[in-house]
Write a structure and sequence with these properties.
The protein has a single domain, classed as de novo design (two linked rop proteins). It is mainly α and 162 residues long. The protein is elongated, with a radius of gyration of 18 Å. It has six helices and no strands. This is Vitamin K epoxide reductase family protein. It is found in: Membrane. Keywords: Disulfide bond, Membrane, Oxidoreductase, Quinone, Redox-active center, Transmembrane, Transmembrane helix. InterPro entries: VKOR (IPR012932), VKOR_sf (IPR038354). Pfam families: VKOR.
């Protein structure tokens, strides 16, 4: 692998694929920050998450619910890890001309789609069970929903150019 070419590709080359993946990286970075804050709350590093006023929003209650810990670990670090993984997959080996494998686009689309499905299920739970909204979770869900068509377009282009 030519590291100089990889660095140049990631930092300077322009293509529709790199533009999509740069957007995915940006959205995933915002998600990483968002869920890092949730993780700090869920693990007791901070005592309260700032919230919007009103009766609808209670990010602290939502993130301290049993649903948020159902896998034996808080869901904040899990989501943060998935956003970090998406950043890694979107950047991996630059572009097809420099050895970016098809599996990295398949994995990227898969993780983004699974995160969107998880976000939709969690939104349903907030609405039907908790009856409270979490500003941070809504932000994460929106990020996931915006990331999905980008990741699918990237995979579709790779499959067409294969």
């Amino acid at each position: 692998m030519n590291l100089s070419a990889l660095i140049h590709t990631l930092r300077h080359k322009q293509s529709p694929s790199l533009t999509r993946r740069r957007r995915l990286i940006l959205l995933a970075a915002v998600g990483l920050v968002d869920f890092s804050l949730i993780s700090l709350y869920q693990t007791g590093v901070i005592r309260r998450l700032p919230d919007l006023p009103g009766k609808l929003f209670d990010s602290n209650a939502v993130n301290a619910s049993e649903e948020a810990y159902q896998f034996g670990v808080p869901d904040g670090p899990i989501s943060a890890g998935v956003y970090a993984l998406n950043m890694l997959l979107a950047a991996y080996k630059g572009d097809a001309a420099h050895g970016r494998p098809l599996w990295s686009d398949v994995a990227l689309a898969g993780t983004v789609m699974l995160n969107s499905v998880g976000a939709a299920l969690y939104l349903k739970n907030m609405i039907t069970v908790q009856k409270k909204a979490c500003l941070y979770c809504l932000t994460g869900a929106a990020l996931n929903f915006v990331m999905t068509p980008l990741a699918l377009a990237e995979l579709r282009e790779r499959l067409q150019n294969k």
